[in-house]
Design a protein that fits this description.
The protein is mostly helical. The protein is built from eight helices and no strands.
Length: about 150
Amino acid sequence: MDKSQMDPFSRYVRRRMREQHLSRRDVSARSGGKIGESYVGAIIKGKCTNVSIDKLKALARGLGVDEMELARIALGDGEQASFAGSETEDLSLILVDMRKKAVMSADVAEIARLLVQLSPRERSGVSKFVRRLINERARQAKHRPKRQRQ
């Protein structure tokens, strides 16, 4: 695959490794062995499209970068990701909440796995659709007759 055609996540990881003169082995070692050399290689070649939260954290440690910045890039929110404190905390809480729900619910894990494979534009469309579903459910609940309490 031509470097210019690689996804932003692969380009970002490759660039950070190049800037710091890190090999795949270096990244793996700096992660405490939590991510393997071959996994790092698959990421920088753009062959790994579904990186788990644990692997993102390990990769961030191996690269010496902020976990949230790396997560945002992996989710497709741009290579120049940077954001302020409260937004970072909100995103952290959302990721923690999603992880708990994914552990408890196979369907939530499957949805999250599929979402990360979509482009940012496609995810935006999914987000709009889900909001419409929620709004419609709220509208229907509002117009539903209330039950009589006995």
